[in-house]
Design brief:
7 helices, binds FE2/S2 (inorganic) cluster, binds fe (ii) ion
Length: 359
């Protein structure tokens, strides 16, 4: 697997709403430094975190009460639209504007489109209403990962690894022993695994108050390039599934810089929603499971990064969803590169030869 370039024409989770306020916050996304902040009317804004003057990070600057952003190197000031409105000690206004990114703030999440703004299509975002549905409760956060986001994607699309990497929490032999069904719908890749009459893994036993045997369903949807949602249902064997326990896990797989990734997560449930003890337990378990993944993926990253020939990998049936996920991202990347190439060809054709001569 050699894919290290990033798709930019797609939605990524840029931040949780509660992370962004009147403090300037820098976060690298697809190799672009982004500065997030809120304007006085509370709308969130994201601009490229490089001052057009001498590239100083704007996130090291200041935001005044009117929502004017000031670069703290030489004093360029930008309004809420990112347009330069002045600079210290100079009457005339420099012609400069910040690159602003399309954003959608919904259900406590801030989604960012780092590519061509004309292509940003809100309808491509999945349903996340359970994050604010009063019948649900959830915990969320972000974990830093020093591994390329494709490794995290494959980790999530092949949950067979739960048996081996998470044996004391969410995995047991039943996971690896149960095959998955995989479907592809346009760019989206989905899988499902239904485990009937199995031993309850410790997390579910404690989380749902169930004793074995149980039925367990895993249905995962990958919305490329960087959103994954897992639907988890657990029920006492023989119970009708709607009577069971329902959980959802959302992952925002957001490429950061180089081969680093922001591993956003939200874990929700639709039962015992006021049980703070259970919430605490589930959050601790979620982070413990994620740390096991981080440990594995960072070890794997070193091996991919140092494999000189990129020798062909061996694959098995349970890799199918991950392979489809790889293909979906590769197709998006190829499409994006083709479009960029066509655009630059057209622009090149419009520029007179004299202007392209080197200076
Ligand atoms: S680098 Fe920002 S004002 Fe000079
Ligand atoms: Fe895992």
């Amino acid at each position: 697997m050699t894919l290290t370039q990033y798709v930019r024409n797609g939605w990524y989770l840029g931040a949780w709403s509660d992370e962004i306020g009147r403090t300037l916050t820098q976060r690298w996304i697809t190799d672009i430094p982004v500065c997030f902040y809120r304007l006085p009317d509370q709308t969130v804004t994201a601009v490229e975190d490089r001052c057009p003057h001498r590239k100083y990070p704007l996130s090291l600057g200041h935001l005044n009460d009117e929502g004017t952003l000031q670069c703290d190197y030489h004093g360029y000031r930008f309004d809420g639209q990112g347009v330069c409105v002045g600079v210290a000690e100079q009457a005339d206004r420099p012609k400069a504007a910040l690159r602003r990114f399309p954003l959608v703030e919904r259900d406590g999440a801030i989604w960012i489109w780092p590519g061509d703004p004309d292509l940003a299509d809100e309808s491509l975002l999945p349903d996340t209403s359970w994050l604010t549905d009063p019948g649900w409760t959830h915990v969320h956060g972000v974990v830093p990962l020093k591994a390329r986001h494709m490794l995290l994607l494959e980790n999530l699309l092949d949950l067979t690894h739960e048996t081996f990497l998470h044996p004391t929490t969410i995995g047991n032999a039943a996971v690896a022993a149960t095959p998955i069904d995989v479907t592809v719908d346009g760019d989206r890749v989905s899988f499902s695994r239904h485990m009937i009459g199995i031993e309850a893994p410790p997390f579910y036993e404690k989380s749902c108050g169930l004793t074995s045997p149980v039925d367990r369903w895993q249905d995962g949807d990958f919305y490329p390039p960087g959103i994954f949602i897992l639907n988890i249902r657990v029920a006492a064997t023989g119970t009708e599934e709607p009577e069971g326990f329902h959980m959802k896990v959302l992952y925002g797989l957001t490429p950061a810089r180089g081969n680093e990734t922001h591993d956003f997560y939200a874990l929700g449930r639709d039962y015992l929603i006021d049980d703070q003890e259970l919430t605490k337990f589930q959050h601790e378990q979620q982070l413990a499971v994620m740390q096991e993944d981080v440990y594995a993926l960072e070890a794997q990253e070193v091996m991919y990064a140092t494999d000189p020939g990129g020798k062909a990998e061996s694959s098995i049936k349970s890799d199918l969803a991950a392979l489809r996920g790889r293909r979906a991202v590769a197709k998006m990347l190829a499409r994006e590169q083709r479009e960029q190439h066509e655009q630059s060809e057209q622009q090149g054709a419009r520029i007179p030869r004299s202007r392209t001569a080197s200076v």
